């Protein structure tokens, strides 16, 4: 007979995870332990280790077939992020994780509550040392610390101490010296010294924090942090999202109140601004900025460190003329296609895909503000479309240099009687520095005393290309004399 062959199909990727090293590491190398699994599949072939330092972009350290990965170098101070990606024997590759494993790393700073691992390379050419021969003096580093602490382990080259600060406190802020003494069998001592900066003082709250919206991008700004802490390291921007687009009628999220809140964060190690790409899922981002120092003390939340913005332009609601709906997408521009969609529901309560045209008013009546949908498409929505029309693009574009005063007042500009007996009333904006692109005015009058005749734009408005509806800023009324019938 003919032998039968069985083929197994494997299209399921393996999984992997890694054990994060201690939070603080003061040696130049450590071993990375990981685990990988491909149960029911073709088996794990290799695991790739990827890392980055201080958010500088991920690099591959290589692919490995056994754990641990020995002597990963950490000579450069900074925050090390890691993740592993497993590949099985069928060529299936694991997806990168959403949140990499993080190792804050420095050999210069410590705060209360940290776990420190102290190491010292010790050798003697004449005698064999044991861990009892190697002592560390912690009296300057710790409040009430012992001056002669025996090494917890010694492998013939490196002595190690694990110092948990959870139940003890450091000495006063400042430079603290740790001294290691090794004594050989002949009584001859050897010394080594290392300075560690004790720092339990958090930075001041961030000021000048603001977010500008953009197409799948946010521009984030804050004041220079150089004077906020003696050992300032960077800013951690924690954020949450209000993803109830386009109605936003569900519960509004709070701003993150501490560095553990929020769904994720962005970290900046220098500068005063960043352009941050964000998800294409439309939402309002609520962010709080926390300054942190080299010891990873975090400053408090404050109103000056909080802001919110959309990750889309108000009015960008179509991919092309007549092109909108599920899966169609957006262009990052506000143009004729978007205005065409708006016109299809203007003056009505929106339904279906027209709901996203309901972008006005905004919280500050600004085109970059937060939409407050009111279930009706009218002048307020038109103004958000018109102020973004042919202005925005897929990259962040600022509105105008400087902040507008927003101290606009609609004032009586003219009141007089014409030769034919008509009463003419003129209205004008005061405090307008050029930012306003439109205005809607409702004029109420007593119909028993006045009769509406007509309305028009002023000569100045016409000269700059103004176009009015049937209710512009100027209105003229015929005097109605009831006594004359």
- The residue-averaged pLDDT reads 80
Beta-strand content: 35-45%
For the biggest β-sheet, the strand order reads: 8-15-14-10-11
SSE series: EEEEEEEEEEEEEEEEEEEEEEHHEEEHE
Which term fits the overall shape? elongated
Amino-to-carboxy terminus distance? 117 Å
**C-alpha-based Rg, rounded:** 34 Å
Description of the molecule:
The chain has 485 residues and is mainly beta. It is built from 3 helices and 26 strands. It has helices spanning 336-343, 379-388, 459-463; strands at residues 15-19, 29-37, 44-53, 59-64, 69-73, 78-88, 101-105, 109-110, 115-121, 134-137, 149-150, 153-154, 158-164, 174-183, 189-198, 210-212, 217-221, 232-242, 264-268, 273-277, 284-293, 306-310, 409-417, 422-430, 450-456, 474-479. The strands form 7 sheets. A 5-stranded mixed β-sheet has the order 8-15-14-10-11, with no helix packed on it. A 4-stranded antiparallel β-sheet has the order 4-3-6-7, with no helix packed on it. Strands 19-18-21-22 form a 4-stranded antiparallel β-sheet, with no helix packed on it. Mean pLDDT is 80; it is low at 1-9, 22-26, 99-106, 396-404 and 469-485.
């Amino acid at each position: 007979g003919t032998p039968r062959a069985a083929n197994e199909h494997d299209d399921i990727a393996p999984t992997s995870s890694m054990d994060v090293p201690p939070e603080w590491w003061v040696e130049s190398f450590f071993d990375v332990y990981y685990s990988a699994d491909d149960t029911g599949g073709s088996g794990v072939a290799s695991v790739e280790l990827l890392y980055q330092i201080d958010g500088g972009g991920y690099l591959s350290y290589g692919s490995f077939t056994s754990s641990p990965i020995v002597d990963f170098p950490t000579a450069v101070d900074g925050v090390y992020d890691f993740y592993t990606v497993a590949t099985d024997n069928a060529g299936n590759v694991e997806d990168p994780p959403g949140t990499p494993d993080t190792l804050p790393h420095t050999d210069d700073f410590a705060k209360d509550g940290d776990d420190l691992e102290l190491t010292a390379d010790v050798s003697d050419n004449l005698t064999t040392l044991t861990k009892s021969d190697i002592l560390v003096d912690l009296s300057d580093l710790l409040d009430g610390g012992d001056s002669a602490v025996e090494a917890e382990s010694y492998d013939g080259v490196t002595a190690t101490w694990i110092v948990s600060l959870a139940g003890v406190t450091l000495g006063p802020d400042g430079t603290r010296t740790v001294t290691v003494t090794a004594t050989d069998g002949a009584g001859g001592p050897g010394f080594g010294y290392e300075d560690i900066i004790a720092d339990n003082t958090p930075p001041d709250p961030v000021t000048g924090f603001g977010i500008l919206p953009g197409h799948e991008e946010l521009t984030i700004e804050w004041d220079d942090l150089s004077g906020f802490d003696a050992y300032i390291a960077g800013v951690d921007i924690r954020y949450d999202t209000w993803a109830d687009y386009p109605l936003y009628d569900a519960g509004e999220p709070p701003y993150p109140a501490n560095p553990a809140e929020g769904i994720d964060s962005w970290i900046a190690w220098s500068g005063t601004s960043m352009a941050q790409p964000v998800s294409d899922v439309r939402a309002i981002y609520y962010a709080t900025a926390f300054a942190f120092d080299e010891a990873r003390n975090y400053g408090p939340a404050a109103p000056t460190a909080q802001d919110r913005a959309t990750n889309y332009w108000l009015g960008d609601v179509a991919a092309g003329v007549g092109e909108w709906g599920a899966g169609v997408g957006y262009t990052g521009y506000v143009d004729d296609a978007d205005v065409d969609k708006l016109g299809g529901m203007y003056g009505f309560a929106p339904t279906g895909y027209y709901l996203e045209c309901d972008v006005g008013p905004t919280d500050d009546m600004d085109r970059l503000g937060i939409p407050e949908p009111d279930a009706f498409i009218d002048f307020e929505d038109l103004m958000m479309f018109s102020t973004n029309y042919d202005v925005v693009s897929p990259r962040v574009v600022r509105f105008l240099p400087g902040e507008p005063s927003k101290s606009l007042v609609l004032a009586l500009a003219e009141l007089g009687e014409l030769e034919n007996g008509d009463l003419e009333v003129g209205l004008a904006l005061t405090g307008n520095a050029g930012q306003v692109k439109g205005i809607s005015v409702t004029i109420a009058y007593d119909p028993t005393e006045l009769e509406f005749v007509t309305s028009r734009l002023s000569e100045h408005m016409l000269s700059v290309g103004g176009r009015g509806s049937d209710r512009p800023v100027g209105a003229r009324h015929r005097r109605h004399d009831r006594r004359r019938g």
